[in-house]
Amino acid sequence: MLTRYQPAKPALAFIEGFGLQQGALASSVAHDSHNIIAVGTNAEFVCQAVNKIIAAQGGITIANKQGVELLPLPIAGLMSDGDGDSVAARYAELDNIAKQMGSPLHAPFMTLSLWRYW
């Protein structure tokens, strides 16, 4: 987890059950803090995913060998200024890629957004 509101070192933890075989997922939608949260198979992919969110000022990302994919969420890092159909289609694309990367979860990004750092 990387705080969006003040300079601080990232919080790191091991996670089990996410199932990724490659790459990383990251999101600025992270209840209750809406900091940037990421999960990945190596530091390089995690950094790529997180840095893309920082550059876009919010969003959800996937980083893998094919590159970095982004759904921008420029309004407070939580909402898109795009039309609903386009946003839903892009979200579905990213969700599908996450599952192709090995996640067995029904909703990988929703699961990621509900993880809490204590």
Explained architecture:
The chain has 118 residues and is of the alpha+beta class. It has helices at 43-56, 84-100, 108-113, and strands at residues 24-27, 37-40, 59-64, 67-72. Helix content is 31%, strand content 17%. The longest helix is centred in the last third of the chain and has 17 residues, at 84-100. The N and C termini lie close together (11 Å).
Keywords:
4-stranded antiparallel sheet, alpha+beta, 31% helix, 118 residues
Question: Could you provide a short overview of the structure?
Answer:
The chain has 118 residues and is α+β, with helices and mostly antiparallel strands. The chain has three helices and four strands.
Topology record:
Elements lengths: L23 E4 L9 E4 L2 H14 L2 E6 L2 E6 L11 H17 L7 H6 L5
Antiparallel strand pairs: 1-2, 1-3, 3-4
Q: Major β-sheet, in short?
A: 4 strands, antiparallel
Helix/strand class? alpha+beta
SSE pattern, N- to C-terminal? EEHEEHH
Distance between the termini: 11 Å
- What best-fitting shape do the alpha-carbon axes yield? globular
